[in-house]
Amino acid sequence: MKIAEVGNIIEFKDGIKGVVEKVNENSVIVDITITDNFHDLEMEEKTVVNHKRYKILANNE
Predict the structure, then answer these.
(1) Rounded to whole angstroms, how far apart are CA atoms 38 and 60?
(2) Residue 61 pLDDT level (bands cut at 50, 70, 90)
(3) Claim: this prediction has a pTM higher than 0.85
């Protein structure tokens, strides 16, 4: 399992996308405001996602 790094774009839970802001031992903190329908989701701007629950879409390279 590849662990995301700060700046990576990840996808989780039915297509929600976000930018990794912090990497923890078991999870990442993600800013999800880049998701197309963010305002319709009625979620906070940031969320925590377990390493097992996301897919890396783009690296920060």
Answers:
(1) 22
(2) low
(3) yes
Burial of 61 (0-12, 13-18, 19+ CB in 10 A): exposed
| 10-55 residue pLDDT tens | 999 989 999 999 999 999 999 999 999 999 989 999 999 999 999 9
Q: What residue ranges do the domains of the chain occupy?
A: 9-58
Reduced 3-state DSSP string for 1-50:
CCCCCCCCEEEECCCEEEEEEEECCCEEEEECCCCCCHHHHCCCCEEEEE
